[in-house]
Amino acid sequence: MSEDKYAAYANPDVLVSTDWLAEHLDAPGIRIVESNEDLLLYDTGHIPGAVHIDWRQDLNDQTTRDYVGPEGFAEICRRNGISPETTVIFYGDKSNWWACYAFWVFQLFGHSKAKVVDGGRDKWIAEGKPLTKDKPAPAPADYPVPAKRDDEKIRAYQVDTLAHMSAGLPLVDVRSPGEYSGETTHMPEYPQEGVLRGGHIPGAKHCPWARAANEDKTFKTADELRAIYEGELGLNADDDIVAYCRIGERSSHTWFVLTHLLGYPNVRNYDGSWTEWGNMVRTPIEKDV
User: Fold this and answer.
1) Diameter of the chain by CA atoms?
2) Quick one: average pLDDT of 206-223?
3) Is 245 a catalytic residue?
4) Are residues 114 and 184 in the same domain?
5) Residue 188: which pLDDT band, with cuts at 50, 70 and 90?
6) Which of 77, 100, 207, 245 is the catalytic position?
């Protein structure tokens, strides 16, 4: 099933199954990376050989609301034994929210040799596949500092998103129904993260990220995804699209789906998302309540 399912995606090689990974744990030229929302999960047990990339401490600048720069990215790769030739295989919790987020950040620096484990951590554990608490100590790799972090193609800033909205171009809000309507400023099981106003960006289409995932946390088939994003939302492959959520992690999941599974070439993730938009002075919002 997996091979047929993957073959129908625009980029079949971007996913690997849990079975494939179990058979290739010691394959040369790969580095397995776990990235979770719950930063303590890795220590409770992880896929053998997997290193941990902490989205807060590793991928984000610690003083500026931004990502690490080229030097910081190169250092992350070096200490985790990742060279430009290494194929990085990401997985994590929450149906791969943060795995897709880490994958997306790696693309900002042009590391295209990257894949995601379909079903992530949850599926691996549900199948009884091996876990370990042993932490690997990979030999440092040579990773030249990238020439730049290329934010232009796949990342949108607030000013870009405002211009996008003003031009009437497609926006996809992937948050929960309550967040989209303005009834709440956060998901029910999450704390309020400092957002002053609820609602959504005017004109944004609503499609919760989880609609792209099955109950076992795997991605839905290409036909199922097209039925959602094209049949229901009315998107087209040649659209210029901006996706957003609350802090950019759920929308990176949708970005991954649209870009790599459906092959849309012009999709950007607005990582500032609602924590920025909902606090900006004189930034327009819509409410459904």
Assistant:
1) 55
2) 98
3) yes
4) no
5) low
6) 245
